[in-house]
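Sample intake — Short-chain dehydrogenase
Collected from: Aquimarina addita
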Amino acid sequence: MKINLIIIIAIIFSITTSCSEETDEALLEKDRKELIEILDTQKVLIYKFGKVCIRASVVNDTVSPELKAFRSKMKKVFSTIVHHDPDESLSVLEYLSIYRDYRDMSKFIQKTDEDQFPTLSEAIRTVYGVNNTSLEPYPELENAVKIYIQNLEHAFLSTILVSSRDMGKELALYECSKTYPELLPDQESKPLIRFFRGFLFFEKGLRYLSEDEISKNISWLEKHPEVALPLVKKMFQWGTFDNTQTHIGFHGINHLFRGLDRLTMEREIDEQRALDDFEIFIKDTKKLGLQNEAIWAIETFLYLKKEDNEKAIVALSKLKTSPLLSLDEKKGIEESIKYLEDRRPDKVLNGFYDKYFLTKIASKYIFSILSKINWEKIMKDQNVPHTEEIFGSIDAFDEFMKNMDTYTSGDAIKETGKELQKEGTKLWEKAKDVIK
């Protein structure tokens, strides 16, 4: 009787535990809600404000009363940010004036989707193009060409921003959240955008969103082995690869990041899935004879799991030579090698060399690749019109975001007010209504 009672309690405990474990979809929904919270910041709103001013400023007429009311302000902000002399910085008063317009329009900006307006390319074409007339209102808003172009714009900006010191990953994540790969044709842009989305979600700790995106990418790559991937080849510097080899390499990279997502999840099933992904990543890279930091890091982890200390030492010794590692990280690897020589792999896995170190190495590897991409040259090679003007606008916007942070925080505005008051009554009078 006592044994039966113990069995019943064990069964109930088992059922309760399994029921309490959240499903993939429930965890994915949690990440979706967290993404919304992450993007709910003043920095993102100011950035969105700048973009809406640029995109909406070329619309002639609109049915929106709010947009009609703000249209002149939007044109003024656009002109101030993009058209000032590139050799001169905006004045403090100009930043305060922009901040006043931002403050007046913030509620409108918060609830407005920037993609209802013409694309950035159209806005820049209108300003810098031969035909300098305003576009018709909402030109072909729902057509496939506009959706395709603005998806590429969001993806392009997310890659530029992720390596920007001043604008940063938070804004890259906003741009990433505005891309919709499922609406793109089955061409190279689709898997590239999905990869960037997966990588940025991974970077922000949104593991289930990242895993979902990369899983879709792996499925797509397996269904479309013939699609040309010239930009992927250029991006990962696989100069001698043919298209089949490029597919294999990119397929492996996607498995690498899905494995890292899964490794940092909490359920036991996720770790086993991660190990399966890592095995595929190593298998793909061996087919191609590749050698890099990400490969050595994953090889080490797999060898440690298999208790193959000698091979783990070889992989760690290669990793130690990487210029991507700091001196402290190299010292940590030396210490790990000593533990392995003493046959103590547990001290390595539970010490310096753990799953978080793995994710760090993989991120450094991708950032090193992104930092070397010359997007301006690529766009010129593709004969994209007004490339120089586009990058000039990005530089101007970069400066704008950096200085808006400097001049418009609560304390900074008060200090600016004091400085302007010292400089003269006229400047102080102009700034007073902004500082209030």
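Post-analysis note: The CA atoms of residues 1 and 7 lie 10 Å apart.
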